[in-house]
Amino acid sequence: MSNLDAPSFDPAIVGFTRILGSFGFNINQHRIHTAYRCFGAFGGVQQREHVYWAGRFALCSRREDIVVYDRIFEAWFDGRLPEFQRQNISEVNRTVATPDQNQSDPDTGSDDLESKKTATASEIEILRNADLALLSLDERSQVEEWITQLRPTIRTRQTRRFSRGKGNLIDRRTTIRAALAAGGEMAELAFRKRRHAPRKVLFLIDVSGSMKAYSSAYLRFAYATKQTRSTTEIFTIGTRLTRVTKSLSKGRVQNAINRALKEIPDWSGGTRLGSQLREFVKVHGARGEARGAILVIASDGWERGDVQLLGASMAHLSRLAKRIIWVNPHVYRPGFAPLTAGMEISLPNIDRLVDGHSYRSFENLCRELMTER
Amino acid sequence: MPMNSGEIRIALAATGYVAEEASAVALWLAMELEKPLFLEGDPGVGKTELARAMSEVLNLPLIRLQCYEGIDAAQALYDWDFPRQILHVRAAESAGLKDVGVIEHDLYDRRFLIARPLLRALEEPCVLLIDEVDRADDEFEAFLLEILSDFAITIPEIGRIAAKKPPLTILTSNRTRDVHDALKRRCLYQYLEHPDLDRAINIIRARLPEISFTLAEQVSQTVDRIRKLDLIKAPGTAESLDWAATLLALGVSDITPEATALSLGALLKYQDDIEQVRSLLAT
Q1: Is there a contact between B184 and A186 if contact means CB atoms under 8 Å apart?
Q2: I want to staple B266 with a disulfide (CB 3.0 to 4.6 A). Which of A18, A99, B234, B243 is the partner?
Q3: What integer is the mean pLDDT of A120-126?
Q4: How many angstroms separate the CA atoms of B237 and B203, rounded?
């Protein structure tokens, strides 16, 4: 790493890697260096395919990268890039940074996206960053599909118990027992190690009218989590509290979601967060389900009911749960402040307030679930 | 030893592995740069098989480290042979040796060291396969970083052991978990896609030389169609090979609904999937 051959860094190639970086590629000096070494390995005359392979193996690090890489590479090599790039950046800005103008009419924001049939690199990138509420139905289902593919991993917790097996602690009792059996000869050391148990994750998903565009994506994310951690519990809240864990626990995602939807009586209805959370604490929380769990509340915090009740319930939950993550789809907006009554009163008892409006923010949520305090 | 990616591809084909161009180039670069190759892809797409074929091409033994949750250095790298050490002490005692220093020194001799896959890979020329890295824990990943960047380890009692020449190292992942970027960036990255129709036919014919072209084609086409369905577990190349072999064993020369009904268990492993496919093929 330290002896990078600086003069060989062709500015054009550095520019290329920078563009890849702007498309969400994980580019760093290490990778660029590897790309150069790959390129050097081919020797001889510069050939288009040599550059292609060098970048493909050294700069891509996910399956999704490869499609995007192919397109950017082509555009770059054909000299179309300056224009191509400008077009993309303005498109990304338009879709992502100014959602409020399109707020009143969700369809207009995505009209020209729809007119292009093939998904280009730029479009994929736009979709990854776009607010779910601004997408057409087709696009939204594409993004929801990506969300279903996420595999959130959850930190485990160390338990007080031990299990046998290779660990760094000597299991005295077993060792001595074995030694006794062998006539006092300590022929084999037995080891033990701390057991780990998955931390439970609880989802409370707001399915009221104001969350309409997002609820289904959150359900899918919960489904994806349930696939990796079977101890996950999923509830929906609106005017009623519904446990949908069973419905979302098996089968294909669409069937699972349909089953859950049948169970939820208050889809797209009003919100009474406070009384629902209190019921949750009473029926599930205090009985132990929330104890030591990671609690993910997905809601915009619009509260039609008693705000004080919500505050008290949140305070109780924060004493039960290990960590409370509040996901709000509006956090990313410029000038966002947690000012809805429900949000404001809950804030002191939340560990993390995170954004949840696009595929990218769900990726961040995955990272958040991995973090231990 | 193959000199370029084209030769690797040909040599792989001779062992019965029909590789796409990208994989051959990636392997060649991995050997040229002495960098590990990180292979990702759905289960049954041929990741492990590629390592096996490559060891055959290079005529080197394949050393395989299967990762699992909870794997640690003692299982991957080395361990001291404790019972033999005790025996050694007892033997020295009964032989009347009194010099404690000498006995203790002998205790940490190389012969009491049990070499696990990673240490073995440093000591002898080989192809090293670190299989299903995504199943191991984060701590183990961090530990791999160290080995994969220097191909050397330090054993406190013995000293540093370094590979004369870093072995061709292949890491595989099924993507059940995102592997840490620090590990990925030390490797070359290649994603193995399911083969397209032509390559699928070639693979089946390479593996089952006695199969007719028609049957190989039919199997590939059917699998291709099945893969587009929303299944719990889409069949990989491994499963389609199993299926082709099953059909061959049943003496089928043409895929009929009856033959399919008999043999679908080789291809699909979930009852839900089998029913869905059966209704598709009936129409």
Answers
A1: no
A2: B243
A3: 72
A4: 8
